[in-house]
Amino acid sequence: MTDENLLSAKDRNRVLIVLLSSLFMALIAVSIINVALPSIRIGLEASSTDLQWVLSGYSLTFGIILVAAGRSGDLFGRERLFIAGTTLFGLASLVASIAPDILVLNIARAFMGVGAGLMNPQTTGIIQQYYRGADRARAFGLMGAVVGFAVAIGPVIGGAIIGWFPDGVGWRWTMGINVPLSIISVVLAIMWLPRTPRSRGAKHDLDPVGALLLGVAVLLFMLPFMMATDNANTWWFAPAGIIIGIAWFVWEQRYRYSGRSPMVNMSLFRNGSFTLGTAMITVFFAGTTTVWVLIAQFVQNGAGESALVAGLVGLPAAIVSVFTSYIGGRLVMTHGRRLVIVGLVLNIIGLALTVWAAFAIVDGAPIWVLAFAVLPIGFGAGWITSPNQTLTLRDVPPNHGGTAGGIMQTGQRIGTAVGTAAVTGLYFSNLEAGHDIAFLWGYILIAVFMSIALIISIIDAAKESAK
Fold it and tell me: CA 267 to CA 47: how far, in whole Å?
């Protein structure tokens, strides 16, 4: 009996509710913290370096564990790793919400990242395992809708929570809200996620050396992009990360040739759609993450509006991305990579309109002009993330689904780190010329990333048409 016949349509819908609710919670934790930083600084008397680690600690631990977590889920049962990750995420959120000082908060945020890193690859792996064809595309479409909506709605929720609660309490609830959500997710996962039978007498080859090498390589490569503004010497970590990454690749090849099962089967990269799709989404995330970072900076510091207004500006685009992600899941099986290309073109058009809106606001236009200007970005995003996920993983064997998903998400985390450092660095270096000029230069670099992603997608589409 094949995996897809093990679950009814009703059961698959329940599985999707569990997966996407936990994914939403983990992604909200990334974006909601941005508007809470000023309150944390005052409440815990935190320095700028302390606040940098509030952001970076979560992202670093999230990024370094993804591939190993995907591999472990493939071997030991994805639902077990999913429940363990969600539980750890909830417990760490509880500690973060009652942290007496900044050190405890940062340690808790790091463990929240570990929990999210354990949980997220299982989402992709379980969808790979139990969904096929149009059902899989629909599932990834809904997943893309959740991703886009969570990133945009996080600052709105954070701004509202901080506004509702007294000073010194609101930032705690931006993390405390995860506790009841985690409990609900764990209970539903125990009830609804199908159980993977425990294999008796089978030897599981985790490849611990490979896992350690890759984790250290990702850590060292990402670290300077998150810390270089405070310590330029950290740039030396990046080449060290690349060297260890090469050592990891050599180790994996030797491990495979010795007859063992490596952490990452390099044959995955012989699949052109997987390799190009992973490269495209990595470059895309280098640009798209900073779209909303710069808008938040411009609205609050350039236009003098509140954090809540900064979040609300992106809300219409987020709502549009929910619908287009779902539609993209239905269209991707027919239109393939062409759908991703259209989405990227719309994003580039949206970038140009957003820059125009920023200059108009400086000249006296209302702030809500920006909300309309970013609509093409939300529309296009729905035709990029989820369709790319479907196409990139289409030919990946289900037993490698968690590992492949972990590789894709690791690429996204690296892209986010690189893009955030490069774009925000360019933005702040041009602030003396005015917020609109700084915004222009930041968006030019974002457009460069988007254009590279577009070129990769065109190459992938040409290869797809040539088959």
Answer: 46
Token reading at 262: 């490596």
For the chain, give the mean pLDDT. 86
> Residue 331: what residue type?
L
Name the DSSP letter for residue 202. P
Angstrom distance (rounded) from CA 20 to CA 382: 16
Q: How far is CA 158 from CA 30, 168, 179, in A?
A: 11, 14, 15
Q: Which residue has the tokens 């003396």?
A: 432
CA distances for 301 relative to 241, 295, 352, 360, angstroms: 35, 10, 21, 16
- The CA distance from 417 to 440, in Å, is 21
pLDDT reading at 350 higher than 80: yes
Tokens of 260: 């063992």
- DSSP percent split of the chain into helix, strand, coil, nearest 5: 85, 0, 15
Q: How many CB atoms lie within 10 A of CB 356?
A: 15
Contacts of 267 (CB under 8 A, 6+ apart): none
The CB density around residue 99, as the number of other CB atoms within 10 Å, is 20
Angle 133-164/9-31 helices, nearest 10 degrees? 40
Q: Does residue 6 carry a pLDDT above 70?
A: no
Q: Which residue has the higher pLDDT, 371 or 158?
A: 371
> What are the pLDDT digits (tens) for 40-74?
888 898 887 787 788 778 888 888 898 889 888 88
Percent of the chain past pLDDT 70, that is, above it, reads 95
Q: Sign of the CA dihedral 422, 423, 428, 430?
A: positive
Residue 260: the pLDDT is 84
CB distance 402 to 121 below 8 Å: yes
309-326 pLDDT, tens digit each? 877 888 888 888 888 888
- Rounded to an integer, the average pLDDT of 321-335 is 85
C-alpha separations of 325 from 196, 216, 243, 404 in Å: 30, 34, 38, 21
381-409 mean pLDDT: 85
- C-beta of residue 141 within 8 angstroms of C-beta of residue 374: no
Amino acid, res. 324 = T
DSSP string, 312-348: HHTHHHHHHHHHHHHHHHHHHHHHTHHHHHHHHHHHH
pLDDT higher than 90, residue 303? no
Which spans in 44-177 are helix H? 48-76, 78-97, 102-130, 133-164, 170-176
Tell me: the pLDDT tens digits for 432-442?
A: 898 889 999 99
